[in-house]
Amino acid sequence: MNSQAHTPAASRKFKILVARAIFPEALAQLEESYEVQSNQSDKILTAEELKKALSEVDGALVAGSERIDAAALSDAKNLKVVANISVGYNNLDVPAITAAGVMATNTPDVLTDTTADFGFALLMATARRMTESEHWVRSGKWDQWSIVNNPLGMDLHHSTIGIIGMGRIGQGIAKRALGFGMKVVYHNRSHLSDADEKSCGATYVSKEELLRTADHVVLVLPYTAQNHHTIGAPELALMKTTATLINIARGGIVDDGALAQALQGGRIFAAGLDVFEGEPQVHPELLKCKNIVLAPHIASATEKTRRAMVDLAVENLRAALDGKRPPSLINTELLTTEN
Ligand code: DGY
Description:
single chain; alpha/beta; Rossmann fold; 2 domains; seven-stranded parallel β-sheet; 12 strands; binds (2R)-2,3-dihydroxypropanoic acid; D-isomer_DH_NAD-bd; NAD
């Protein structure tokens, strides 16, 4: 761990940064143990503000909005831990954090079911044109029941779902799909164990085969440089014209401009997006599409789960500051090489 120029901390209260608004009770508990610098205004810190705040603390609770890299850490002489309140950690430059001797943690498991529920909800809303239908009702233009002249959707039951990224959340979606009698195919960096494939009823296929055969494509893979634009114009061209595409992974996994063109040109049937390139900005051409369901990055957003995410991040932070191994340490090599 960061041993250079550390201020001896045993004799003083640790200082921590809480970079985004959290639940008041969680903040109050932290204030009992630490000297807390908190940003309850929830206004995202600028890179300069973040760097300055990190230079003054021993630990930090951050979220996807905080980019933690070598520049952010350059003055962080006492920092021991960066606890991300998020399972995805593409905001963390892990090699740079490790090089600075700082522990990095995330919040896996506690959000798996909530996020899988939301992925399935978004898929259902998209395939059955729910927001488009709601807009129609609200507009007052719906004037009669009709056999054909109303939003006709695509079935989920007994269709094929293709899941790209078969970690915990992908597997959660697969298990939900089984309840709808869906055939489940998946593509992932690695094959699941036989037992996991069996419990998900899932068959591994190439990305091309998945795109050609799935009625519904769901993206749940982490964002990395290699995964940038996993779905762009060439991939959309492989999909069925009747297919839906759901992105609950990260902005940048889909080329949003190419997706808007595909939706406008009827290349695919519909899309459901919880994440966007450059969010909270949304590609203006996507906003013009009717055949899309849009959500503001809320897949893990239930009160119970957000509290559990904060609690796990706090547990990680406390463990690190107590000199213990945090339960969801990302850069495990930091402890391995030292112990
Ligand atoms: C996660 O936990 O990764 C969610 O997407 C929130 O950032």
